[in-house]
């Protein structure tokens, strides 16, 4: 039975069929903790004032603090510390713009929380102002259950982000990731789903065998992943609301690297059912397989374009792992990467202009970005052991797994590489992140 898992990139795992990990003794806790490691120098100064409160309710969550944390993690904003604020208005009419200009702020967000009915629900009124113009840019009211203030805070963050930048926020989306801990000397794997800041994590699957490569369905309701729970790799689809799971691929040999089509009707998979690792497309309803690649080399780690007209994948057909692009209707694959002898695990940006991938240079694994229009390659991370990149749905943030102080952590870097933060588990190993799409609630 397979009991351990490698921290090498997935391509290396498929090539060697080995899963190795150093022994660990510290337990894993579900929640992750944000640690800002590097911010952009030109971050936008914004003041998120503590929200006022009416009634006699006590709240377990600090809405304004969550909004400040959300905006900070993008690297595009530099929220003002509360202890530096000269006043704490909760309504626009109480803002003294001169004070905020003195503090160098470009925007100020104020708001107020009020009980609804018997206090089981909470209404939040919030307003965003341009300090220099003394102009209200946003004024809204939202109502949620009293125990759901984090959802409210993420919604406010999304609205503020979009109002200022013109781009849709991702704070109401979710993360999936895998943790590994030792229990009584045996490895235990857990598949988690959490908020993008690592909070409200829930375990969706626990196994004493490896769990790999979670992938979100386009509607955000399901996860596909690889599980070794039967002693060999199989691909499952897991419906999050009901907890129902279905094994959809358990052919002899490899069953790995699931990737949903944009319409949610099909999965790209890596299978070795015919003796060699190739990319196949499976129609989920009929289970009909279409072989997409046909080469003696290892072809794996597929990723769809946003339109579903093409996909990228990793292949060692040139002598070492490189990124290729292929039309969904077939044809000859086009090699995209040439900058080093190892480029793998590609992920296309939502606009199709960039591909992000694991890049090896001088023995270090980093995350790189290739401009598909001018072929310019930019290395975004310098940690040295980076893997499993996954893009936010707006294409402006990228999460990946790495090592920091001998522990497995998740890290986020902006798509331009200017700002980073980490999401380590409180103890132990965390890996294989997947950023959810937007849903009706995000």
From TrEMBL:
Record flagged with keyword Transport: no
UniProt entry keywords in alphabetical sequence: Cell cycle, Cell division, Periplasm, Signal
GO biological process: cell division; protein import
One Pfam family recorded for the sequence: TolB_N
Compartments in which it is found: Periplasm
Signal sequence extent: 1-30
GO CC term (a single one): periplasmic space
Location of the TolB N-terminal domain: 33-137
Superkingdom of this protein's organism: Bacteria
Function recorded in the entry: Part of the Tol-Pal system, which plays a role in outer membrane invagination during cell division and is important for maintaining outer membrane integrity.
Entry's family note: Belongs to the TolB family.
HAMAP family from the UniProt entry: TolB
Complexes and interactors: The Tol-Pal system is composed of five core proteins: the inner membrane proteins TolA, TolQ and TolR, the periplasmic protein TolB and the outer membrane protein Pal. They form a network linking the inner and outer membranes and the peptidoglycan layer.
Protein name: Tol-Pal system protein TolB
Species annotation: Tamilnaduibacter salinus
Primary gene name: tolB
